[in-house]
Specification:
The complex is a heterodimer of chains A (312) and B (279). Helices cover 71% and strands 0% of the residues of chain A. Chain A is an all-alpha fold and 312 residues long. Chain B folds into 2 domains: 247 residues, Alpha-Beta Plaits; 30 residues. Chain B is globular. Classes of the chains: A mainly alpha (312), B alpha+beta (279). Bound molecules: iron/sulfur cluster (SF4) (2 copies). Chain B: Keywords: 4Fe-4S, Iron, Iron-sulfur, Membrane, Metal-binding, Repeat, Transmembrane, Transmembrane helix.
Chain lengths: 312, 279
Amino acid sequence: MPKRGGERSMVPRAEFGSYYGRPVLKRPRWQAPHLPGYLYFGGLSGAAAAMAAMADATGRGRLSLTGRVTAATAAAAGSALLIAELGRPERFLNMLRVFKPTSPMSVGSWVLATHGGLTGLSAASGVTGIAPWLGRAAGAGAALTGPVLATYTGVLMADTAVPAWHEGYRHLPLLFAGSALASAGAVGMAAVPRGQAGPARRMALLGAGLELAAAGTLEKGAGMREQAELISEPYRTGRAGTLLRLGRGLTAAGAAGTLVAGRSRTAAVVSGLALTGGALCTRFGVFYAGLASAEDPKYTVVPQRARRATGA
Amino acid sequence: MSDSLYGPLHDVAEDAGYADPPARAGFFTDTSVCIGCKACEVACKEWNAIPDDGFALTGMSYDNTGQLGASTWRHVAFIEQSRPREVGDGDGGTRWLMASDVCKHCTHAACLDVCPTGALFRTEFATVVVQQDVCNGCAYCVSACPYGVIDRREGDGRAWKCTMCYDRIGDGMEPACAKACPTDSIQYGPLDELRERARARLDELHAEGVAEARLYGEDENDGVGGDGAFFLLLDEPETYGLPPDPVVTTRDLPAMWKWAGGAAAALAGCVAVSFLGRR
Ligand code: SF4
Ligand code: SF4
């Protein structure tokens, strides 16, 4: 137990009261692998759709087909995970009962439904060759919904009372954008012949860079408004800290491999796997950081007390 | 639906779209007279037909309930405190705090803001209630509530919390907990009246020398625009397991969307840039 006004120590321990050490917040009911899995697939689908549309526009047939199929498959997989996570999965259509701008999950459900439909159409057309103009139009539409789908999830997590998620509202969308770019680039460069995969490799590189930069600032709490060191602690410690460090290693290795992936298909596949692993670790890490942040009352109480003391 | 996400709001029900609503209903829980009998917990369970949520001995004084949750809509906290006191200072320097906690029916309720199905809604009494036939158990509300009140009932799959006895107050009756409370620690009525009564009670206690008495959740300038259910406490809020300065998460939602918009544009820009060049 921390002493009140006791001896000084090198690292000042947070002193705060609590009710038998119990958390103030409820433990999020979202679970792994559903929620982090959805974050990954949503990001992959969104960035892959944008990749496919650009490949269409620049006459890269193989890359377009891979992007379309990836976008549709990932949207379906993400939706399945979301539905499986509901307490009442048979009521999933209630997500489209209203449109509520104050609920990121409502906005996200509409985006996901639209995006899922568009990517499904464009993939079906791409695979069967039926109505190619419709496939291209749907694909162009999905290039607009895709970036939203890949980044709104940052708002989804941040719009909670969980301090590590809430105070990460500046970082999470950028982190997820980078991670999504890397994920889609990874699939593209692993699945498409080297000659057509240049854009996928560049997406992977840009994405990895953004992911590493955003994760770095999030872990340090850079840009958080108050008690940044304390509130960002769950991103550095415990299971989340381990996952995020592992993710950083995988993403950096994947990015390095991507530099030579233009010369060897093996390097492309291995780098793609590393980037995918990094993206998954990032999503799971962010998820577990939130659980740790909700479970220890100090993350809720100490910053709020400090805020009250300063009258801010 | 309300357009305001933050700050004081006087006509909560009007803001939610009711034309001529009744006065805002509230709870004032004066913990200074609570005797820890748990009549409120029992009455709530009985009236609302809430299932049990386990029989456990927690070791937390007389509190074997633990916390509010999907199947606990009133929770009596017990805090035993022994502090060094002056000689001749009453009964041996031990004090026992008891407090009946409940959903705060926030002016700006995060649970309601984030609910994607519209299951959570604002009643004409400005209280916050879950429509059980609509909730699909997405659990967003669980992570959004800054007080850790609402939870999903496992097995059932839906979110549950205090309704301020919507079925009773609509018929002019007081909620079951307030009805059962033998000391009037739980008072139900129009929120404005309760706030006045609470301020008078606070002055009385301060005059008696109970300097540590304070109101919690009555200030409409706080982070949730004031609570429909507020309290008189005898120690810091966190001692009772309450957050000292809760803020409705949707206060920052406009800023969040801006950052997400920027990130989406960055993503699209990165894809476009990647397609420059012929290889
Ligand atoms: S206390 Fe929590 S559950 Fe109750 S109205 Fe406020 S946000 Fe909703
Ligand atoms: S669990 Fe039910 S009440 Fe809570 S946000 Fe989801 S749909 Fe709304």
